[in-house]
Design goal:
Number of strands: 26
CATH architecture of one domain: 3-Layer(aba) Sandwich
Shape: globular
Strand content: 25-35%
Distance between the termini: 67 Å
Helix content: 25-40%
Length: 515
């Protein structure tokens, strides 16, 4: 395929001239601005010109810092038009964390939104140029459009930093081809149309907001409404008022929406597609949406797979438990790792016996930026090791059992925290639960359950253990139960288990071993 020939809104090297997009149709909007596809193309070209004046060219890293806004996507597309690599940065990070990422990726320019002016100025090293899109002494959007060379499918498009739940964050490289094939996979599962109006509530520094919402919608010529921060009441209002036809979320967001006082009176009639991932949704939450006539489609993926691997089909969701992540995407191969080391890995089919999931396909990242050893360690031949344990039924519908790294061994038996947590949250008083393992002199490891109760609810440790003991083997029942006001989470809503492990180790390090 030939490279992008215009100012460019295409994915990878798909030419703009082939896109079936109406120039006067709304492309992106936020609370302050609305742009048509023609307007977005013009702004993209002008911002690309501004970046080119700063010396940005093919392969250079352009970082972005700010909340979801029209400027975010303008900057992404402008950098891609030059063949540069976008580095989205979590706007909630501290200055030291931002500096680490800028140094790690070797960014030459940091573009920021109006909400991040102070942090952008204070965070970077002296050799990083800090600019705004429309303000400041050298705004990017002024001046003439640049002559752009575009990019090929194998060229890096974006560096997405992993959540950092273990060790320092590392950047997964996603190519234009990775983004393109993920978009095709997503559209094979979700029927987005040019008439759809999607709501982007997930942050655009995360793969869900970028790859599962924005790019598929724009690929089809639909519109994307950008939300700077999640607020359940405001999101419900926009769903009804816009009206919104599709959005993607994490389970925590879905729970907050259906528990909001405005939920019973919110008109959800326009919603056709709601997809989610990151962890399994609680059955009561899935039922709340289904009772309102909205079918949730759970997916499974990760940053390194751009991110989609599995997704429930709309037609099959009603016949399967809401904890199932569905079936593999169309252009995705899956297998499990056999025991015995890398030389005996896959392709063993995913079956009833849990095993570490292996993935290969054109959407899988080529590796981690500047980390050849970690890239090599994550692969066996063409297969990428996800670190997640999955099992599947005879019909291929899969269930995520747990992370390999979250598993702990008590008395010689494997304990998957997700299995324990799934039982705990069936109690009406429990809003959420996270289980971690800590060392134990007798059993090797034992469990600590951190439990977040629903507002106004009461529950004691003995009652929770009674529930768990009735449905789980004794070795799976956590020895310790701690009640917390809130579980620690990262910016994408995932529980920070590393924080809980540190807390548990400190709290119970000197405890005598119980019989």
């Amino acid at each position: 395929m030939s490279p992008i020939t215009g100012p460019g809104l295409g994915l990878g090297s798909w030419p703009v001239r082939r896109a079936r997009i109406g120039p006067d149709a709304t492309a992106v909007l936020d609370a302050h601005r609305t742009l048509t596809y023609a307007g977005l193309a013009d702004r993209t070209a002008r911002i690309a010109g501004g970046l080119a004046r700063l010396g940005v060219g093919h392969g250079d890293r352009v970082a972005w810092l700010g909340v979801n806004a029209v400027e975010t996507l303008e900057t992404y597309f402008a950098a891609w038009a030059l063949g540069a690599i976008v580095v989205p940065i979590n706007h909630r990070l501290a200055g030291a964390e931002i500096r680490y990422m800028l140094d790690d990726c070797g960014a030459s320019v940091l573009v920021h939104g109006p909400d991040a002016t102070g942090r952008a100025t204070d965070a970077p090293a002296p050799d990083v140029r800090v600019v705004a899109v429309d303000t400041g002494p050298e705004p990017l959007a002024t001046g003439s459009p640049a002559d752009t060379g575009g990019a090929d499918l194998d060229d890096p498009a974006v560096l997405l930093y992993t959540s950092g739940t273990t060790g320092r964050p590392k950047a997964a490289v996603l190519t234009h081809g990775n983004l393109t094939w993920n978009t095709v996979n997503q559209l094979a599962h979700v029927d987005l149309l040019s008439t759809d109006r999607t709501l982007c509530v997930a942050p655009l520094f995360h793969c869900v907001g970028l790859s599962q919402v924005t790019l598929p919608a724009l690929f089809k010529g639909g519109s994307v409404e950008l939300v700077p921060a999640f607020d359940a009441g405001a999101v419900l209002a926009r769903i009804a008022e816009a009206p919104i036809t599709a959005f993607a979320a994490v389970p925590t967001m879905l729970a907050l929406l259906c528990e909001h006082p405005a939920w019973p009176d919110t008109d959800l009639g326009a919603l056709r597609s709601v997809v989610y991932g990151g962890s399994a949704v609680q059955e009561r939450v899935a039922r709340a949406w289904l009772d309102r006539g909205v079918t949730l489609q759970q997916g499974y993926g990760m940053t390194e797979t751009a991110p989609g691997v599995y997704m429930a089909t709309r037609e099959g969701t009603a016949a399967h438990p809401p904890t199932s992540v569905g079936v593999p995407h169309f252009f995705t191969d899956v297998a499990v790792a056999r025991e015995g080391g890398p030389e005996s890995c896959g392709p063993a089919p995913v079956g009833a016996e849990p095993g570490e999931l292996l993935v290969r396909g054109p959407h899988v990242s080529p590796g981690y930026w500047g980390r050849p050893e970690e890239t090599a360690a994550a692969r066996t031949g063409d297969w990428f090791h996800t670190g997640d344990v999955l099992r599947a039924g005879d019909d291929g519908w899969a269930f995520v059992v747990d992370r390999v790294t979250d598993l702990y061994i008590s008395g010689g038996e494997n304990v998957y925290p997700a299995e324990v947590e799934a039982v705990a949250v069936t109690h009406d008083a429990v809003a959420d639960c996270a289980v971690v393992g800590i060392p134990d002199a007798r059993w090797g490891e034992v469990g600590v359950a951190y439990v977040q109760l629903r507002p106004g609810a009461r529950l004691d440790a003995g009652e929770l253990r009674e529930l768990l003991s009735a449905r789980l083997a004794r070795y799976k029942v956590p020895r310790h139960v701690e009640f917390v006001d809130e579980l620690p989470r990262n910016a994408t809503g995932k529980v920070r288990r590393v924080d809980l492990r540190v807390r548990a180790a400190a709290a119970f390090a000197d405890e005598e071993v119980l019989p």
